[in-house]
Specification:
This protein is α+β, with helices and mostly antiparallel strands. The chain contains four helices and six strands. It has a three-stranded mixed β-sheet. α2 crosses α3 (99-108). It is globular, with a radius of gyration of 18 Å.
Length: 167
């Protein structure tokens, strides 16, 4: 079924499927479509809560965040990722959180079209700063910077990131 299935309690997996089915049925009714249920898989790492694989019709969820945040995670992330799949089917390749996705989130899923999550993450990362915020970089990215192989800049203010502290 999924590679990290044993780490997800069955009651959480069942809640994921129930949420998925509720929103899929809602979307099929409103759009007059017959989209099938996507595959659900789990991955136990990173700061990304979920990911939609558009051409594979699959949703991947962060198993650690799911375990730690339960129902709040499910109600926020499952509709978000399902909206990506439906948007791709209905509109083709568009901006990931563009107006088409926002329409599906608000009018079809009846959810606020939030782009990012606010779940706490256990980080094994390095804290970098720019002129406007903190950034959390993985050990791999940190080592690339340290070895002068690359640099990263903030997408908001455009300044080069610099090390603040290590966790």
């Amino acid at each position: 079924m999924q590679q990290d299935y044993k780490r997800i309690p069955i009651y959480l997996h069942n809640q994921v499927l129930a949420c998925l089915r509720t929103h899929l049925t809602q979307a099929n009714n409103i759009l007059n479509t017959h989209y099938k249920e996507p595959k659900v898989s789990y991955k136990p790492k990173g700061s990304v809560a979920g990911c939609a694989f558009l051409t594979r019709w699959e949703i991947q969820l962060n198993s650690i965040m799911l375990n730690e945040n339960g129902e709040k995670f499910i109600n926020e992330v499952v509709p978000h990722e399902l909206a990506h799949l439906i948007t791709f089917q209905k509109f083709g390749k568009v901006k990931p959180h563009g107006q088409e996705w926002q329409y599906v989130m608000s009018e079809i899923m009846k959810k606020e079209p939030k782009v990012t999550h606010n779940f706490n993450i256990k980080r094994n990362e390095y804290v970098y700063i720019c002129n406007c915020q903190e950034h959390y970089l993985s050990p791999i990215r940190h080592n690339k910077i340290r070895k002068n192989k690359t640099s990263y800049q903030c997408r908001k203010c455009g300044t080069i990131l610099r090390l603040k502290i290590s966790i």
